[in-house]
Amino acid sequence: MGAVTAVDRSPKQDRSRATRQRLLEAAVACLAEHGWAGSTVSVVAERAGVSRGAAQHHFPTREDLFTAAVEYVAEERSTALRALFPDGAAGDRRAVVAALVDLYTGPLFRAALHLWVAASNEDQLGARVTELEARVGRESHRAAVELLGADESGPGVRETVQGLLDMARGLGLAHLLTDDTARRGRVVAQWADILDRELAD
Amino acid sequence: MGAVTAVDRSPKQDRSRATRQRLLEAAVACLAEHGWAGSTVSVVAERAGVSRGAAQHHFPTREDLFTAAVEYVAEERSTALRALFPDGAAGDRRAVVAALVDLYTGPLFRAALHLWVAASNEDQLGARVTELEARVGRESHRAAVELLGADESGPGVRETVQGLLDMARGLGLAHLLTDDTARRGRVVAQWADILDRELAD
């Protein structure tokens, strides 16, 4: 047996990373479609085309898998959002507001919502999700401040941005059962105008 | 058997109404504490001190009981809210905003949230909850417009009020896992100021 070099290890690590990623994406899709009760490690492994043993190697518990999944996808979305506006609000503050709100209407938000609601009744999951939610919340806030070109040293600016993200979360919830796209478009247009006036001061 | 008069029937009707009300209140408390999976007609009947048969006489199905419960409590809250501000925003628009947001942080919101999320994965419940949500949403909007003294004939005013209720819903969601009272207080103070400026125009 020769020394294991970086070159030797690399393809195996790549495969392992790809497997992990497939599991995380399958976990979010599964949560969004079937809710917490219908989302087990076995169901996700099958969906990802990975053996149950391999899934458990990456994620020893169900809580590990699903909190990691929501965090992974939230990071991916946040990166994609920043890439959309490389110049921040210099582009168009209203477009930034619309894009921020969009983050809360897709499968990631549905998955996160199922996880939060399940966590509110399950202690073990609760602690994990609370910590995750704080981290994702801070990151969303940072991205919003940056993209909106908001100066948080001004009085009330921090709370203005927080309220916008709370509204985005509420709009996501309104979209859970029915297609709320048309109404949401009108609300977002109006509040983007309000925000534009407030942040321009 | 003599004719059943209004006087004869009244005490029985009162008892029946009281039983119904106990069931509805127990159902909301049960949903808020245990979620949909832990909320059955039997559990609610026991909590309300009512026989399972009597519960099923009032509410033949689980869906009947829980949608009626959320609707009943929403109506009670809405009535109580209007009673708090008999003069509408003539009192204090910022106090109205705070009171509107408060509607979304108690057991009723938690119960409704569990019902919505369960409904998103269960077709039969979904149709019922969608209809309920539309009715409760319209009523909340009407109460908000009235209490804020908002003139919806003005451009964007309708969407301004809708956005406020979306924000309130999002703030309720943020309160699900952790005590968000302090942060919410700051966000509400800031947005109540913004809303006051917007509606004063």
TrEMBL record, chains A, B:
PROSITE patterns, sorted: HTH_TETR_2
Pfam families assigned to the protein according to its UniProt record, in alphabetical order: TetR_N (PF00440)
InterPro entries according to UniProt: Homeodomain-like_sf, HTH-type_TetR-like_transc_reg, HTH_TetR
This protein's record includes keyword Transport: no
GO MF: DNA-binding transcription factor activity; transcription cis-regulatory region binding
Annotated region of DNA binding: 40-59
Record keywords: DNA-binding
Domain HTH tetR-type: 17-77
Name of the molecule in the record: TetR family transcriptional regulator
Annotated organism of origin: Streptomyces griseoviridis
